[in-house]
């Protein structure tokens, strides 16, 4: 189950450059396209004529044209025209609120009367020229909550990402988890350790020595419905760690927008925003490539985990101290689901 009365990342603008895009979000099959004014519209991916996917069509004069028999539909879900037919009385398609903001296209799959764009959290790194961002998209066959668990407990880095960001010191420092409202934070600080390969590269990218001891931090923040932003970085040891001056550290924000497709599949929008040398495009490309490789290592683990859980629904799983962040995030999700169910019963 997934909350629907909230904003999810549906796609990125570059995915709409050549025509309509079909995408399933929270079990809802949608098609995204731009109208004549260039605004993104989202309607049900279903032609009312013969049920063909409208996403297999094309955009003409700001309308979505079905690729089967030419029915044209506007962004309001109403049929505009169809060759040789009178369209008055044609059924209207379901529509979904869509907002283009911060380099992403967001969609509200639930009660459209509650779709307030002001509820999209401000992302300073996406609007400031003092930051650079690079990212990508993975389609993963797993429950979205498994990915939330993964990101709120980074002890797996020692094993899944041993060649890039993993190190034994992660296991040796217990995370500290806190909850404020619907925001769950899990933090880990490591002192006077060797930087792993990815962070040695980042230090060099900021003009810093990569062969000296460092202080490292990981601060994971979950916000509903399924977004995790992680402050990560290393600073030369003894310079203040997380609070070190910019000239002594390489720090970034790992961006994780997890969008449920079905109960057991997700669209995973990943990336990294950084505030050091933001003008260096080669560094942005290098970090994106490295991060893409790191996240690809999670893919097989999560998909195999999902299959195991489906095959063994009766098995009870352990809950350890390292799982606190994911457990608390699931409690937030459960509260949202309960509230939506209660609201639905009251209607």
Please indicate the percent range of residues in DSSP E strands (runs of 2 or more). 25-35%
> What is the share of helical residues?
10-25%
* Uncertain residue segments: none
Q: What's the main sheet like?
A: 7 strands, antiparallel
Mean pLDDT level: 95
Series of secondary-structure elements, N-terminal to C-terminal: EEEEEEEEEEHEHHHEEHEEEEHH
CATH superfamily of the largest domain: Naphthalene 1,2-dioxygenase Alpha Subunit, Chain A, domain 1
Number of domains: 2
Morphology: globular
Structural account:
- Pfam families: Rieske, VanA_C.
- GO terms for molecular function: 2 iron, 2 sulfur cluster binding; iron ion binding; oxidoreductase activity.
- Keywords: 2Fe-2S, Aromatic hydrocarbons catabolism, Iron, Iron-sulfur, Metal-binding, Oxidoreductase.
- This is (2Fe-2S)-binding protein.
- Residues 7-107 form the Rieske domain.
- By secondary structure, the protein is α+β, with helices and mostly antiparallel strands.
- The chain folds into 2 domains: 8-119, 3-layer Sandwich (Rieske Iron-sulfur Protein), CATH 2.102.10.10; 129-339, Naphthalene 1,2-dioxygenase Alpha Subunit, Chain A, domain 1, CATH 3.90.380.10.
- Helices cover 24% and strands 33% of the residues.
- The chain has 7 helices and 17 strands.
- It has helices spanning 124-127, 144-152, 157-160, 168-172, 197-205, 281-311, 324-346, and strands at 8-11, 21-25, 28-34, 40-44, 58-60, 63-65, 72-73, 79-81, 95-101, 104-108, 132-140, 176-180, 183-193, 214-223, 227-236, 249-262, 265-274.
- A 7-stranded antiparallel β-sheet has the order 11-17-16-15-14-13-12.
- β14 and β15 (227-236) form a beta hairpin.
- The protein is globular, with a radius of gyration of 22 Å.
- The two termini are 20 Å apart.
- The model has no long low-confidence stretch (mean pLDDT 95).
């Amino acid at each position: 189950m997934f909350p629907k009365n909230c904003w999810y990342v549906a796609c990125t603008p570059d995915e709409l450059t050549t025509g309509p895009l079909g995408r399933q979000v929270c079990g809802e099959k949608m098609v995204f396209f731009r109208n004549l004014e260039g605004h993104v519209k989202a309607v049900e991916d279903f032609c009312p004529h013969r049920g063909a996917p409208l996403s297999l069509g094309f955009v003409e004069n700001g309308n979505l044209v079905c690729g089967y028999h030419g029915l044209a539909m506007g962004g309001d879900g109403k049929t505009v025209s169809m060759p040789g037919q009178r369209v008055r009385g044609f059924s209207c398609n379901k529509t979904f609120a869509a907002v283009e903001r911060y380099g992403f296209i967001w969609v509200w799959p639930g009660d459209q009367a509650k779709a307030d764009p002001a509820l999209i959290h401000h992302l300073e790194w996406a609007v400031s020229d003092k930051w650079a961002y690079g990212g990508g998209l993975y389609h993963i066959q797993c429950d979205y909550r498994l990915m939330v668990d993964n990101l709120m407990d980074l002890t797996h880095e020692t094993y899944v990402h041993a060649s890039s960001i993993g190190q034994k010191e992660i296991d040796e420092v217990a995370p500290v988890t806190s909850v404020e409202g619907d925001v769950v934070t899990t933090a880990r600080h490591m002192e006077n350790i060797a930087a792993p390969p990815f962070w040695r590269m980042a230090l060099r990218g900021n003009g810093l020595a990569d062969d000296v001891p460092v202080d490292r931090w990981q601060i994971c923040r979950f916000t509903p419905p399924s977004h995790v932003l992680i402050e990560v970085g290393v600073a030369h040891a003894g310079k203040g760690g997380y609070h070190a001056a910019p000239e002594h550290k390489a720090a970034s924000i790992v961006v994780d927008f997890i969008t449920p497709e079905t109960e057991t599949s997700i669209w995973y929008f990943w990336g990294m925003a950084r505030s050091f040398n933001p003008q260096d495009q080669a560094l942005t490309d290098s970090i994106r490539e490295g991060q893409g490789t790191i996240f690809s290592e999670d893919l097989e683990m999560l998909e195999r985990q999902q299959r195991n859980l489906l095959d063994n629904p009766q098995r009870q799983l352990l809950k350890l101290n390292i799982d606190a962040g994911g457990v608390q995030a699931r409690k937030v999700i459960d509260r949202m689901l309960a509230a939506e169910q209660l609201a639905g019963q009251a209607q």
